[in-house]
Structure formats: structure tokens, C-alpha cells
Amino acid sequence: MDSSEPLFSKDKFLGLPQERRHKKLALILKHAYIMMLAGEEADKALENYRKTAAYIAEKESPLATLKEVSDAFHFHAKEAKWNLREDSLLPSPRQQDREISSSKLPIFAYLDSLRSAFNTGSIIRTAECFGFSKVFLGGATPSPECSQVKKAAMGTEAWIEWEAHALIKSLPRPLIVLETVANAPSLYDFKFPHTFTLAVGNEEYGASDLLLNEADFFVTIPLRGRKGSLNVANAFAVAAAYAANELNRIDRKG
Predict the structure, then answer these.
(1) pLDDT tens-digit map of 100-120
(2) Which of 142, 170, 187, 193 has its Cα between 20 and 30 A from that of 207?
(3) What range(s) does the tRNA/rRNA methyltransferase SpoU type domain occupy (predicted)?
(4) pLDDT in tens, 78-98
(5) Domain of 69, in residue numbers
(6) Which among 48, 49, 51 has a CA at the least distance from the CA of 2?
(7) Per the structure, how many domains does the chain have?
(8) For residues 111 and 136, is the Cβ–Cβ distance under 8 A?
(9) Under 8 Å CB-to-CB from 242, ≥6 apart: which residues?
């Protein structure tokens, strides 16, 4: 069949539940969008979409630009109740990745038996973005060998060193644990040393007893809302951004 011909007969398409119809249309548009982004001819794919959308009398939208195709994709994704993860989104037309990174900072991350592959991948991505030299994965923390970790890391697992089954006693010192313990100083008052390991505990129980006993310092993120904690990946991002900025500021002064 010519690629400009609909993938479904009218009877077959109308036989699908409404949400599946919209998801099929969204996927056709995603294919066309990726072709357009790559500079390839997408007219046949877009014609396929128009003919298929006509089965449900969908009002024809302008599809001349990436933005217009993106808007149509997200309309159908919403109608399909498609809960889009970041790896399901359309690729950005803005190429923000650099061929090489700036010089790494002498700072490290330690993840203490995280449960979530998404949180693990997100922290790896954050650590790479802020110039951490290495991520140590402790206990049962899933590694980038897990496909879900790789999806959340968005390719950064190939750009930063990581080590699975890392032992706390072997981590670069000092060991700074991000945790809500009594009398822990605010992140914003703490003077970060030139090199350190920033550690976070798991989503359910926080830092393990072993990590708490081995910690050289504790820091906490001051919160004003009623909720007393942040998602571990979000908490790491806040601390990593602040710590990296402090080191960069000191280097600029020095």
C-alpha cells in the first residue's frame, strides 16, 4: 500500500474505541513530525493522517510547520488520555546538547538503595548536567542497564561515570547526606568543600542507618509548605544545582 493511503479501512478504524482512534492519529502525526524534524519529505505521512482523521469528521488543522503538527499531536494525545512520559514526547527542534561537556567538577553522587528506576535515571541526568564526575549506586539501586533508568537518563548515562553496588566506605570524602535530621543546617547556609559526595536515601525510608552513621555532614532543604518532603530526584536537583553553583562561584573568584 502507498504510504499516503490510510493505514486502516474506514470500518476498521471506526470499530476502534474512541481513545484508541485518537492515539492512532497521534502516532501518525508523531511519525510525520520526526520526518519533518530530520528534513525529510513528510507529505505522504500527513496525507495519511488527513484521510484517516476524515473518518471521524475531524476538523482539518493546518500542518505546515512543526508547531502545528505538534499542536495536533497533543490534541489527539489528550483525547486519547495518553499519559505522556518524557520519552514519549516529540523530540525538541532545539538542539541543546553539546558535543563535549565543560570540565567536570570533583564532586560525586551516591544513591542509597533507591527503588524507582525513574528517580535513578533522573538523578543521573541531573548529575551529568551539573558536572558531577561520577554517580555511585548503592544497594538495590537500579543501574542504567535497566531500560527504564536509561529512558529517564535521556542518554546521559553514557556521558557520566557510574558504578553499581558501590560501598559506602569507599566513597570519596567528605560524605554529605541530604536528609531531614535534627539540627541539620540549611542547604543555603552550608559551606560546601571543594570536593565531596552528595548522598540521598531511598523514597520510603530515607538514608539507611549505615549511611547515617558514615555521614560527615548533613544538610537539609528548608521548606515552607505543609508537605514536609520532596521527591528524592527533585531534592537532589535542588541540592546539586546549589552546590555546583557555589563551587563555580568560588572558582570564578579564585
Answers:
(1) 666 899 999 999 999 999 999
(2) 193
(3) 108-240
(4) 999 998 776 667 877 765 666
(5) 10-88
(6) 48
(7) 2
(8) yes
(9) 187, 188
In this model, does residue 50 exceed pLDDT 60? yes
Both 75 and 125 in a single domain? no
Give the number of other CB atoms < 10 A from CB of residue 113. Answer: 17
* Residue 20, C-alpha cell as written in the block: 484508541
- On whether the CB atoms of residues 144 and 150 are closer than 8 A, the answer is yes
The CATH code of the domain that includes 115 is 3.40.1280.10
The kind and range of the H/E element at 123 are helix 117-129
50 within some domain: yes
**101 falls within a domain:** no
For residues 122 and 36, membership in a common domain is answered with no
Note whether residue 99 is domain-resident. no
Rounded distance between C-alpha atoms, residue 74 and residue 124, angstroms: 28
Residues 123 and 29 in one domain: no
Q: How far apart are CA 136 and CA 102, in angstroms?
A: 21
Indicate whether 237 pLDDT > 60: yes
| Residue 72: partners with Cβ closer than 8 Å, 6 or more residues away | 29, 49, 61, 63
Crossing angle of the two packed helices 43-54 and 18-37, in degrees rounded to 10: 160
Q: What is the DSSP string of 23-58?
A: HHHHHHHHHHHHHHHTT---HHHHHHHHHHHHTTTP
